[in-house]
Amino acid sequence: MIPIRDLPAVNATLNATSAILLSMGYYFIRRKNTAAHKRCMLAAFGASLLFLTSYLFYHSQVGSVRFTGTGWIRGLYFTILTSHTLLAATIVPLAIITLSRAWKARFEKHKRIARWTLPLWFYVSVTGVIIYWMLYEL
After folding, report:
1. What is the C-alpha to C-alpha distance for residues 98 and 106, in angstroms, rounded to an integer?
2. Model pTM?
3. Domain count for the chain
4. pLDDT value at position 1?
5. What residue numbers bound the domain in which 83 lies?
6. Which pLDDT tens digit goes with each residue over 19-56?
7. CATH code for position 9
8. Exposure string for 50-76, b = 16+ CB within 10 A, e = fewer
């Protein structure tokens, strides 16, 4: 069992894993390797689901964690946090719709929404790692 104090680092690792898998999925689809693309995207979705589960459990136990930085870094933190939070709420349905369209072989519709989903999902994953670093390591 992972100690609760270690969950933020686990969550950051899951976000980083998701970002790497999304990048690999993009690489593979650009090279028309759909089988590898599919594996990467499903793995990224799995990593994101694990993240969300762990994140919700952690915050149900610990509550909100306050940012203690001061000066310009405080403004930067809250700017990143706000964009991350708004896009994280948006990415859940977008990812489900995008994956659903691919699963149902509606590839033209899948491609249209994936053009939005991929960069937003990547941004949310990367900013999740940045938020962890700023909140727990800075």
Report:
1. 10
2. 0.95
3. 1
4. 86
5. 4-137
6. 999 999 999 999 999 999 999 999 999 999 999 999 99
7. 1.20.120.80
8. bbeebbeebeeeeeeeeeeeeeeeeee
